[in-house]
C-alpha cells in the first residue's frame, strides 16, 4: 500500500516524511449528462491534515468533493469515471457498500442542516444506525464526546432535548460537525462550512478545524483564500473543471507556478 | 432637471414620463388595483359564506325538530292478567304480552265515552306502534311493578307528533253570547242558541265560498289560455263548480252546509266538542267528537265557537284527531322530550321509531375498513413512487393513471365493486367489508397524490444530511423524510376519509340500499351507511321523515366538521419548522 502511495505522489509537492496519503484520485472525470464538469483530476490528500480546494464559482470543486463520499450517486444523470481510492481501496468498486463508506467519510454542508430532532438525537442518530453503541450509556458517551470535540458541549449540556433547529447558525454548524464526528470517520469533507456564518462563528469553526486536523483527514472547499491560507496545509486550485495546481499552502500563495493560479490569487479572475 | 432624472433611469433612451405627478398617478393606480383585488376576494368570501350560512340555516331549521319528540305521560295500570298471565314473570312472557290492550284501556280512561269504531280507531292510532316499548323494558327489568299503576311515557305517532310541533293548524276560540241548549250528548246533535251567535260565522262561510268560486274561475281562465283543446273538459268542470258555488253564495239561504275545504267550525259546550255540519244563525247541527257531560243549558261565555283555520282537506290530521290531541293537551298529558331513539334505534318504517344507529355503526365499520386498507397502501405507494421507483416509462404511466383515477366518477367504483367483489369473488352483498374495499379504491389516488406532495415538500437538505451520516436510502426516507411529511400525509388522509364518508353512489351499486333494521355487528353483515340512509329517508312519503332526513344530514355534517377539525389539529400539532 505504501508503494502505491509513493507512486502516486505528485513530483512537486513536498509531502513531509511520515504523513500517509489518505485519499488518492487519478484521472477523475465527471459528466452531468452531456456536460463535462470535471476533466482528468488527479490529486493526493494527506492524512491528519487539512487540504483546501479553492477556485472560482462553478469550477467543480464541490463536485469533486462530493465524489469522495459518493454523494453524486444521488444525482441520476451524474457519471463518474476514473479511480478514487481511500487508503488504497477503490471506493467506486461495485462490491463496496456505499453506506459504510459514508460512515468513514463524513460531510458538513454549506448551510447548516441539523435534523429537526433534539440535539441529542441529532448526534446519536449516526452511531445508532451503524450499531456503534450497545447500550444507552454507550450512546450517551459517544454523544457527549462528539459534542465536546466539536466545542459545543458547554453551551448545550443542559438542554440536550431542545430541538437542534433552536440553536444559532454557528452552533448549528458545530452540531453538524459533532454529528459527522460521532460516527467515527477517517475523512471529513467540508463544503464551504462557514459561508453562511458571521466572522466570530467562522473563527470558532476554524479553531475547531485546527484541533480536529490532529485526528482526521479534512478536506475543505472554500471561497475565501484567506480562510484557505489560515486553515489548510495543502491547497488545490480548480478552474473550469480542471485541477490547475496543487501544493503546500505557503507555496501556492507566495509562489504560484501557473498563470491562472496567479491571476486568481491576485484577484484578476474569480 | 430632465438630465438628472434621465441619468437615474437605466434606459435613458426610453421615453418614460418620470415627472412626480405621473409617478404619483401610477402609484395611485397600483394601489387602486390592489384595493379592487382585495374587494373581489372579499366579495367571493362573502358570497360563499352566505351560501354556506343559508345551507346550514335551512338544514338546521328543518332538522332540529326531529331531535324532539312528544309523548303522552299517563298512568298505566299494569294489569297482571295481561302482562304476566298465569303468574309467570320471566322476560319472554312479559315481552310477548299484548300491550295494545293495556294502552287502549289507558286511552279510554283518559278520554271516556268514545263510541263508534271509526273514532275509537283514530284514538288508538294516535299512539305509535312502539308506544309501549319503554314500558315493556321497564317491566322486564322490574317485574315487581306488575299489578301496580306505573306512570309511563307513551310515544305519539308521527302525525300526532308533527301536530304538536305546530305545523298543522291554528286554532281560535270565541266565547258566545247566547244561552245554548244541546239536544244530546253523543252522535248527531243540534245546538240551539238564544242569540244570533252564528251569524258572523255564516257570513264568513259565504265569503269563503265566494273566494273559492273566484279562484276556480281564475284557474279555469288560466287553463283556457294556456291549455288549448286538451283541457277543455276540465275547464268546463271548473266553470260549473264555480257556478254552483256562486249560486250558494248568492241565494239568500239561511242555512249552509260545511265541507272539508273550508275551515272547520266546532262548538265547545259542557265539556264536549261538536263538529258543525250545518249552520244557521241561531242553531247548528253537528257530530259529537268529544262527548258532552250533559244536555244542560250553557250560559253566556260558558260555551265557545272553535275554528280550525286550516281546512280539513289540507291537513294530515282529521278534526276528530285534532279534538283528541287538544283534549290531551288540556289534560296536561303531552310531554316533549329529547329524541334519544333517533340516536339509539335502527331504521324503521314508522318515522317516530326510526333512528340512525344502524347507519352510524355501518358507517364506522365501513370507514374502518377503508382506513385500514388505503392508509398503508397509499403512503407506501407514494413513498415508493417518490423515492425508490426508477424513472422510466412504466413509472410515468403509473403516475398518469393515478391522476386519472382520482378523477373517475365514484359510481364507476361501485360498478367495479359489483362486478369483481360481489359477482366474481362472491363477497356478501351490502357488507361493510365490500363497501370499505370499494371506498378504499376510491380514496387511494387522493391519498397517494397528497402523500407525494407532502414528501416532495420536505427539503432535500435533510435527506442529504442523513445520507451524509451513512444512512441507507430507505433509512433516510423512513427516519427523516417521512416524519416531516406526516402532517401533510395525515391531512390528505383525513380529507380522503371525509370524502369517503359522504359517498353514496358506489355504495348504492353494491347493494347498501336495502332496508336494514338491525344494527350490524360484524364486517360481513348487511349494513347501511349514513348518506344512503339519508337518501332512502328522503324518498319516503311520511311527512315526519323530512325532518328526520334533515336531522341525519345534521349528524353527517357534525361528523365531517369533527373529522376536518381533527385534521387541522393534527397538522398543527405535528408541524415542524426546519
Count of β-strands of chain B:
11
Give the largest interface.
Answer: A-B, 27 and 20 residues
Rg value of chain B? 36 Å
| CATH superfamily annotation of the largest domain in chain B | MetI-like
Number of domains of chain B: 4
What is the correct CATH architecture of chain A?
3-Layer(aba) Sandwich
CATH topology of the largest domain in chain B: MetI-like fold
**Based on DSSP secondary structure assignment, what is the total number of beta strands of chain A?**
10
Q: Assign the structural class of chain A, choosing from mainly alpha, mainly beta, alpha/beta, alpha+beta, or little secondary structure.
A: alpha/beta
List low-confidence stretches of chain B. none
Q: Report how far apart the termini of chain B are.
A: 51 Å
- The fraction of residues assigned to DSSP E strands of chain B is 5-15%
The main sheet of chain B comes to:
8 strands, antiparallel
In terms of structural class, how would the helical and strand content of chain B be classed? alpha+beta
Shape of chain B: extended
Percentage of residues in strands of chain A: 25-35%
Note down, in words, how this protein is organized:
The complex is a heterodimer of chains A (270) and B (578). Chain A has 270 residues and is an alpha/beta fold. Chain A has a single domain, classed as P-loop containing nucleotide triphosphate hydrolases (Rossmann fold, 3-Layer(aba) Sandwich), CATH 3.40.50.300. In chain A, 37% of the residues lie in helices and 25% in strands. Chain A has 11 helices and 10 strands. In chain A, the strands form 2 sheets. A 6-stranded mixed beta sheet of chain A has the order 6-7-8-3-9-10, sandwiched between helices. A 4-stranded antiparallel beta sheet of chain A has the order 2-1-4-5, covered by helices on one side. In chain A, helix 4 packs parallel to helix 7 (169-182), helix 5 (136-149) packs across helix 7 (169-182) and helix 7 runs parallel beside helix 8 (199-212). Mean pLDDT of chain A is 88; it is low at 1-17. Chain B has 578 residues and is of the alpha+beta class. Chain B has 4 domains: 2-64, no CATH class; 68-164, no CATH class; 172-315, no CATH class; 351-574, MetI-like (MetI-like fold). Helices cover 57% and strands 11% of the residues of chain B. Chain B is built from 21 helices and 11 strands. In chain B, a hairpin with a 5-residue loop joins strand 4 and strand 5 (188-193). In chain B, helix 13 (357-388) packs parallel to helix 16 (432-456), helix 15 (410-424) packs across helix 16 (432-456) and helix 18 packs antiparallel against helix 21 (544-574). At the A-B interface, helix 3, helix 4 and helix 7 of A face helix 17 and helix 18 of B.
